[in-house]
Amino acid sequence: MRKFLLLVLAGAIVIGLYTYVTPKLFQHETKPSLKDIRLATSTNGNPHPNNLSSVEQTILNVISNKCKRELLLKGELFNLSKTDILTDLPLDVLNSHDFLPVKKGGFYEPENCEPLTRTVIIIPYRNREKHLKIIINNLHRILQRQQLKYGIFVIELSLPTTFNIGVLMNMGFLLANNISEYDCFVFHDVDLIPLDDRIAYHCDVSPKHMSAFNTKYAKVNIAKALPYSAYVGGVISLRGVDYKKLNGFSNAYFGWGGTDDDIEIRAKAAMIPFKRENQNIGRYYALPHQRDSNNTENLFKGSLLKSSRKRYLNEGLNTVEKCCKRVSIVYRDLYVHVTVSCDENIVMNQLLNL
Question: Domain named Galactosyltransferase N-terminal: which ranges (predicted)?
Answer without folding.
Answer: 99-204
